[in-house]
Write a structure and sequence with these properties.
Low-confidence stretches: 7-20
Shape: globular
Structural class: alpha/beta
Strand order of the largest sheet: 7-6-5-4-8-1-11-13-2-14
CATH class of the largest domain: Alpha Beta
Mean pLDDT: 95
Strand content: 15-25%
Number of helices: 13
Number of domains: 2
CATH topology of the largest domain: Alkaline Phosphatase, subunit A
CATH superfamily of the largest domain: Alkaline Phosphatase, subunit A
Helix content: 25-40%
Length: about 500
């Protein structure tokens, strides 16, 4: 009995030691939160003290990119490490595919307790959906098909929507803490994907947060288009009023992240928890103030894809650092897979493992970054076979903004067995080193091609195409080769291995 007891104690100690050495991972993302909308990046109005503290004490990415200038596609890249066009997630409201392998799949295999909280938007969240969080590797979820505001309706573990009273970021973090406690009781490391509903329009805020921005209505008086909280339809309002509410949402989200950080610290979890934050695309046009980058959400210019990027992990990043290495949401799966000791899926992966960046040994990205807004409205797609039965793609969680008179969202995805030349169209770009090539189709004539030196010209004001035609030609060729790889994946070839 003594020998048995001793073995049991040794096994328990070994398990506890293993758990302590295994890092917890929390990946957070804001909705429509652009690069410039943080205090640490010099915004003149918005207050983000928690993100500012993370930027000052952890690893700050100066050039972190959403893999696409809109939400659903970026979220697909975040989960899979692959460009969204590989799986037919072309624009908002297009789901990904059941054959995709997510970071939750990989970390489940490594013994993590995996949870998704908040916006999903890569398919329906109901349990019948083959691309719900529970179907795509997560053990539990409190999720929404799309975005949400104050007092959100959320689906717990794929069930019917439940109304949660309060500020939405605060609600998600409260739930995240409860998930952490359940994982600890089960003796498992935790992996969480927390996707906030803020600061996506339509906007609303708590009185104390709104009061911080009472001066803005007088400063910004032009009318901007957004959704009415009262009717759910499009309306126009003075930008100052809109910014007051938007920035209140960002400040509330920032405070909620602070609540999570405090919980980790008070419970001895902060040291060995990787806490990450980014946005899913650039600032939305209703709120973009036109600095310091060109463009906004839905554009492949820097203003559409550059987002905040922060990693806090004291055990691995003990001193504050800033990196100019370009990184992307596609890099998250390769990075967490490496941390968890899991092999990458046997298929094209667009992201890279950021471990050398965490270690401070990488000074430049070794591979190119690619961006591409596939033209999904073509007749081929309209007549193609649905990838998932339409009834399984119907959403259940309501939101304020109505589309076609509906307060819920449905999703789509199609088979693409044959690729044509037109499939290569759509706004696209490639960044290699400091140079960026941008291509836009024009209604009549040849495509518009631009070449920028992002180091010398981060605002993308000077087109170098005439000065460096050979470089532009080389980058155009590399972009086309990458597109060919993506389109091969789109046919489903990656799933046939």
């Amino acid at each position: 009995m003594k020998t048995s007891l001793l073995l049991s104690l040794c096994l328990t100690a070994w398990c506890a030691s293993l758990q302590a050495a295994t890092p917890n991972i929390i990946l957070m993302m804001g909705d429509d939160h652009g690069w410039e909308e943080t205090g640490y990046n010099g915004h003149p109005h918005v207050k983000t003290p928690v993100l500012d503290e993370m930027a000052a004490t952890a690893l700050k990415f100066e050039r972190f990119y959403a893999a696409h200038p809109s939400c659903s596609p970026t979220r697909a890249s975040f989960l899979t490490g692959r460009h969204p066009n590989r799986m037919g997630t072309f624009t908002p409201g297009w789901s990904f595919r059941p054959e995709e392998i997510t970071s939750a799949h990989l970390l489940s295999q490594a013994g993590y307790h995996c949870a998704h909280l908040g916006k999903w938007h890569v398919g329906a969240v109901k349990k019948e959906s083959p691309v719900s969080p529970l179907s795509m590797g997560f053990h539990e979820c409190l999720s929404h098909d799309n975005f949400f505001e104050m007092n959100p309706s959320l689906s717990r573990n794929g069930g019917p929507p439940e109304l949660f009273k309060g500020e939405s970021s605060e609600i998600l973090i409260r739930e995240a803490i409860q998930v952490i406690e359940r994982a600890q009781k089960a003796g498992k490391p935790f992996f969480q994907v927390i996707w906030f509903g803020s600061p996506h329009e339509p906007y609303s805020g708590l009185p104390e947060d709104l009061a911080l921005y009472d001066d803005l209505p007088a400063k910004y008086t032009k009318l901007v288009k957004l959704t009415s909280n009262e009717t759910g339809a499009a309306t126009k309002r003075p930008q100052g009023e809109v910014l007051r509410e938007r920035y209140a949402e960002i400040t509330a989200m920032d405070r909620a992240i602070g609540t999570l950080r405090k919980h980790l610290a008070q419970n001895g979890l902060r040291e060995n928890t990787l806490l990450f934050y980014c946005g899913d695309n650039g600032t939305s046009p209703d709120a973009a103030l036109g600095f310091p980058h060109r463009g906004a959400k839905a554009e492949v210019y820097e203003g559409g894809t550059l987002v905040p990027g922060l990693i806090e992990w004291p055990a691995r990043i003990p001193k504050p650092r800033s990196t100019s290495v370009r990184a992307s949401t596609s890099d998250l799966l390769p990075t967490v897979a490496a941390i968890a000791g899991q092999s990458l899926p046997d298929r094209p992966i667009d992201g890279i493992d950021l471990a050398p960046v965490l270690n401070g040994t990488m000074t430049a990205r070794p591979t190119a970054l690619h961006f591409w807004e596939y033209q999904a409205a073509g007749t081929k797609v309209a007549g193609a076979k649905p990838y998932i039965a339409p009834e399984l793609q119907q959403g259940t969680t309501p939101l304020v903004k109505k589309m076609g008179g509906k307060a819920t969202r449905d999703f789509t995805n199609f088979h693409h067995p044959v690729i044509t030349e037109d499939d290569h169209l759509g706004a696209r770009s490639i960044i290699e080193g400091d140079h960026k090539l941008v291509i836009h189709e024009q209604k009549n004539g040849a495509p518009k091609i631009e070449l920028f030196d992002l180091k010398a010209d981060p605002a993308e004001k000077t087109n170098l195409l005439e000065q460096k035609p050979e470089l532009a030609k080389e980058l155009q060729s590399k972009l086309r080769q990458w597109q060919d790889s993506v389109l091969k994946s789109l046919t489903g070839a990656d799933y046939q291995k």
